Amino acid sequence: MSATPRTEAVECCEEHVVHTAAVDLARSAMPDEEITSAASDFFKAFSDKTRLRILTALAQEELCVCDIAALLGMSQSAISHQLRFLKQARLVKSRKSGKTVYYALCDDHIQVILAQGIAHVQEG
Q1: pTM given for the model
Q2: Can you give the residue ranges of every domain in the chain?
Q3: Which of 67, 88, 97, 116 has its Cβ near the most Cβ atoms within 10 Å?
Q4: How far apart are CA 124 and CA 107, in angstroms?
Q5: How far apart are CA 34 and CA 37, in angstroms?
Q6: pLDDT digits (tens, 9 = 90+) for 27-71
């Protein structure tokens, strides 16, 4: 099921009135630019369908590169590239067992964000 973008027009105010109290409240709750920049980078990791599929798989089970490549029908090289991106974004972690490297989600936050994003799209 793929989401189709909505083409609804964005409505604008008919008169220019700034609600100062609302703006002040929003400003006081807004994170620093450094935080919003880091959060933007974090969410970029979710913007690729292959990375989303990898994260979804890892939400179910710890997997090695061979497992993920077989699951997604892709080369180990392509999967390794995506895992490197996800690891740098601190979404996945790895552990070595003998000659095999297993990947898993870093923490429960990733699984919650992933599940909520998918649920939101499915409701659409």
Answers
A1: 0.79
A2: 38-123
A3: 67
A4: 27
A5: 5
A6: 999 999 999 999 998 899 999 999 999 999 999 999 999 999 999
